[in-house]
Amino acid sequence: MNVLIIEDEKLLQLELIKLLENYKDFEVVKCIQTVSEGVSWLKEHGDKLDLIFMDIELSDGISFEIFDSVEVKTPIIFLTAYSEYAIRAFKVNSIDYLLKPISSEELEKAIEKFSASEKKKEIDTAIFQDIFAKHSPQKTQRLLIQTGDNYSYITVDEIAYFVAEDKYTTIVSFDGKRSLLDKSLNQLETILPPEKFYRPTRNVIVNIEAIVKASKYFNSRLKLSLKPQHDFEIIISRAKVKSFLDWMGISD
Predict the structure, then answer these.
(1) 202's torsion region: left (phi>0), alpha (psi -120 to 50) or beta?
(2) Rounded to the nearest 5°, which phi and psi values hold at 17?
(3) Which residues, at least 6 apart from 233, have a Cβ–Cβ distance to it below 8 Å?
(4) HTH LytTR-type domain spans which residues (predicted)?
(5) Ranges 60-74, 85-99, 141-155, most confident
(6) What is the pTM of this model?
(7) What one-character DSSP code corresponds to residue 233?
(8) Rounded distance between C-alpha atoms, residue 117 and residue 191, angstroms
(9) In the chain, what percentage of residues exceed pLDDT 90?
(10) Mapping DSSP to helix (H, G, I), strand (E, B) and coil, where does residue 133 land?
(11) Could you give the residue range(s) of every CATH 3.40.50.2300 domain in the chain?
(12) What's the pLDDT score for residue 85?
């Protein structure tokens, strides 16, 4: 069976591919990360698919936007981090889903349900729009990281700061450990709790608990010192000083 994965986080793609290796009849023919790529690929290859695993939130929009541009008749199992209230709505409307993080047990149940189904269900985009409008996903409280061939989660409370480096982002945790993440700082800004994390410069996002001090710097700027120690300067521009102080709860 030909399987398509639509998921914008590379590590989650790899995690799902690894889990699907246990099902010999399933072949992942393509992994897609964006709405636009999904529309383009499905228009040409959609009739050759047997099953789609589809993340709800993609880097350039919500996945149901794909249905506005291309007819999708292939059965879909949605991948979601939505709240329990949204999950209830999924169940009521018989929408197949897997809750992140994906477990082998839940994947097995979903595949058994798919295999037992004799009738393909039509996609009702109006139902999706209603659910998404009422139940927006909560801010991320943990992130998936990869160490060798193993996957693990790190909670955002363990993270001191993120540093943009080439195509990847480096996570520095409070215990000094470093790991790689395949999300950009722009993506992280949209999913991290804003009361805990702030982006003082283009290359760094910091946890409020990691700030040791903010010192006055020339030209009305600020210089940050973080823990664990770092070998680069973090200089907040004059234009961002007020925003930073407001976030810190400090009156200037």
Answers:
(1) alpha
(2) -60, -45
(3) 223
(4) 143-250
(5) 60-74
(6) 0.61
(7) -
(8) 35
(9) 49
(10) helix
(11) 2-134
(12) 47
